[in-house]
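Run: sequence + glycyl-adenosine-5'-phosphate -> complex structure.
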Amino acid sequence: MAKITKLDDIVSLCKRRGFIFQSSEIYGGLASCYDYGPLGVELKRNVRAAWWNSVVQMRDDVVGLDSSILMHPLVWKASGHADKFADVIVECKKCNTRSRVDHLTSGAEEHTEHVPVETAMTDAAALDKKVCPNCGQVGQFTEPMAFRLMFETQMGANVDDTMRLFLRPETAQGIFANFRNVLDSTRVRIPFGIAQIGKSFRNEVTTKAFIFRTREFEQAELEFFCEPGTDDEWYEHWRQQRFEWYLSLGIKKENLRFREHDLDELAHYAKACVDVEYRFPFGSGDWQELEGIANRTDFDLRQHQRGMRTLNSWFEKKGDLSQIELNSEADNYHKGPLSYFDDQTKKRYIPYVIEPSAGIDRSALAFLVDAYDEEEVRGETRNLLRFHHSLAPTKVAVFPLVKKDGMPEIAVKIYDDLKGHFTCFYDEKGAVGRRYRRQDEAGTPFCITVDGQTIEDSTVTVRQRDSMEQVRVATDQLKNYLRGELEL
Ligand code: GAP
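>> structure
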């Protein structure tokens, strides 16, 4: 039976094998920022590719987008983030540590992602029994205060035209802001979706558990536009699709579940929301959000129609967002610039939006945790990552058994032949058993070894990562054999 994985095992394997490093480690590290090393970058590329394949490439009703991280400040006024995207925090009077009110426990379960400010304020009413997570002091907190989660930056060098901007806290708004552009430049018809993968930034108060919650992270988001009244159906569709995606990439079913949001947890834009949760090996309840699927209604497109009409006021108030009210004057929502005209039914409406929003880093962590295994082999512990073949950073490793008798030359030739087709790795250093173990830890599904018999009959051994079984394959059949086995 597979061993229960501890996060420490994963963190140390990631460092040892070059998956993930602490950012700026040579300067003592930068809290909650991480760098992906040679194997990690391949894993992440594969996670992105699997998402894109399922959400964009395999569908006829979704197109892609890559919008910029920096956007006009009014975007964030219209979306509600400038006013509402905050955590309610308190400071412990004893140790001065700041904590999210919704993360303080007195035995109750914590919320994983941000809850609306109003909900957190209700939680804050019962602070006398809450425990400081840093020093353990009970009920010794300052008055709750709102802490804005968006990072700010400055654009432009001239005093007159500098602008205070935000680093985007979600990629979704780049999609809404381009809704009209995509409609006008492509042949899409509702129902259709726009997908994008990209970096988002949040000045998280509580970061935790390795790459689970960081201040810079990557999201994979789909905004699926549909006619009002069909939204419940599409919500159901995308819930199922997204759950299946994790299972299809090897996540064990017992580690995955849905969790519906209670009404008081819903974000300001959502009519309904469900989390796909994974049983991570940390945290109070183990089950943690992997992805959220929300019914965002027509909230965002309506808000951007208001935002577009607020530009004059924005200039007048010199860009001070706190002084600006969104313009809802003479607001004919259904005929606005972000409405949709269905030329078959002759109906015009603001589309509803179903949004599956996943984290690439968080998915990568779930895939790492789920794939991790330890087993006893001939009195020794074998650590391995049983990655789904499509996620494995390296698909094939090629070794000469020894560094003589012409074996390296044959192995290099095989490696050169295969590397145009699969991610390959060549290794001739050390005992072959140790080379196998290194590849097991990297999650490489196949190792090819050139040995004495290769010189006689042009066959090599191909060893499978999971079963450790070895078969002999003719060198001129290797490509086909691997293609079949890897299903690529
Ligand atoms: N557009 C909707 C949205 O951003 P969210 O639940 O705040 O919703 C969606 O984020 C997903 O993005 C989460 O399920 C998680 O996978 C990922 N995510 C959010 N904040 C994160 C953080 N600080 N670090 C890593 N991943 C994060």
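>> summary
The chain is about 30% helix and 25% strand. The longest strand covers residues 216-226.
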